[in-house]
Amino acid sequence: MGRSVKYTQSLVDQFCEGLSQGKTLRSLCAGDSMPSHTQVRRWLQQKADFQRRYRQAIEESAENFEAKILEEVEALTADNARVAQIKINTWFKIMGQRNPNRYGENKKSEPPFTPIKTVQEMTDEELQHCLNDTLTQARNREQEGSGFE
Questions:
Q1: Rounded CA gap, 9 and 139, in Å?
Q2: 30 shares its domain with 98
Q3: Range of the domain at 35
Q4: CA-CA distances (angstroms) from residue 54 to 36, 39, 59, 113, 137?
Q5: What integer is the mean pLDDT of 55-84?
Q6: How far is CA 21 from CA 27, 61, 67, in A?
Q7: What is the DSSP string of 30-65?
Q8: SS3 breakdown of the chain: % helix, strand, coil, rounded to 5?
Q9: Do 1 and 36 touch, CB atoms closer than 8 A?
Q10: pLDDT, tens digit, for every residue of 34-57?
Q11: Engineering a disulfide at 20: which of 54, 57, 77, 94 sits with its beta carbon 3.0 to 4.6 angstroms away?
């Protein structure tokens, strides 16, 4: 799992780019040229610039989950709706953890796809209505912008 590496701007750029793309700390630290998990924690305590960049990258990664949600919603069918619901709800939870100011539980927004009935219990009309609502809400989120002010 990673090794001790020298702190450089290039390494920080590469590391934070991976975070912003949604990669996990664990997967990044597994790379031979990347810092270990312990070293990242140390840098977060000792280096203000790294702390700022790390936090920004984590917040930006939440936006990548928005894109994943939109892709998932646009690919919804009656056959994959249940799996899509689980993915979307999971991504919303991750987004709330990574950028609580925009996606946290204290916000009014809810995951767009939470049917009361199971997909199997829904009529075709109910499923279509639910899918349309989900797509509309996801597009509205995309139009809200990046959330950085």
A1: 36
A2: no
A3: 1-46
A4: 15, 13, 9, 31, 29
A5: 84
A6: 12, 5, 11
A7: TSTTSPPHHHHHHHHHH-HHHHHHHHHHHHHHHHHH
A8: 65, 0, 35
A9: yes
A10: 999 999 999 999 999 999 999 899
A11: 57
The answer to whether residues 115 and 147 belong to one domain is: yes
Residue 135 maps to a domain: yes
- The answer to whether position 18 is within a domain reads yes
Question: In terms of domains, do 41 and 97 share one?
Answer: no
42 and 65 co-located in one domain: no
- Spatial distance between the Cα atoms of 102 and 121, rounded to a whole number of angstroms: 33
> CB-based contacts of 76: which residues, under 8 Å, 6+ apart?
84, 131, 134, 135
Which residues, 6+ apart, have CB-to-CB distance to 147 below 8 Å?
A: 59, 63, 99, 101, 102
Residue type, 75: A
Residues 39 and 66 in one domain: no
Q: Do residue 148 and residue 102 come from a single domain?
A: yes
In a domain, 53, yes or no: no
User: Which residues, other chains included, contact 8 with Cβ-Cβ below 8 Å and sequence gap of 6+?
Assistant: none
Provide the number of structural domains found in the chain.
2
The 10s digit of each residue's pLDDT in 74-113 is 888 888 888 888 888 888 888 888 878 777 776 554 544 4
pTM of structure: 0.58
